[in-house]
Amino acid sequence: MKFGVVVFPGSNCDRDMQDSLQNDLNKEVIMLWHKDKNLSAFSTEDCIVLPGGFSYGDYLRCGAIARFSPMMQSVIEFANKGGRVLGVCNGFQILCESGLLPGVLLQNANQQFICKNIFIKNGESGALKIPIAHGEGRFHADEATLDSLEKNNQVIFKYCTEFGEINEMANPNGAVRNIAGIRNYNNNVFGMMPHPERATSKSLNNIDGHKVFELLNIN
Prior knowledge:
By secondary structure, the protein is an alpha/beta fold. Helices cover 21% and strands 26% of the residues.
């Protein structure tokens, strides 16, 4: 599997993602400039990554301007053809703004930027320690959408304690139903607020990010 990492003005995790994929996961990575449109080097078996950061300075809403960049038009077409797309942090916000994923990311409940290690889990994992770094990471959707996401197993990660308990105390930003990440109905577009690329190096004493990529089947 080949990876393309989109670089927007204001991205600050694009090189983190490249380093993680290339050096820790031994993957081929091509950096993609936001003003370009060409994805001909990628097949639907590959994956396009929207990294974290502050695309276009978050001057409107997080991800709202990036959604209209030339490269995103190609990414949307790529996803609609079945290609894999992963959005992390700001990338998750862009996926929601573009309509590739439902819901919205709102300002954290404490109205402060949060940067720390937290724990997440899904039905196939124990608690995984993954860093977060965001000011607008509180996932929100209406009840019908939330019920649909739960029913169709589209919630890929929830915030939990280090012991795997899903409760209010483990929720760092007030996300509804402790949701940390979701996927689309067709299981080829994934969005999450925590940063798995920051947890793949043995030198950081944390390689739980490897398990995240494995669970998403994009490794």
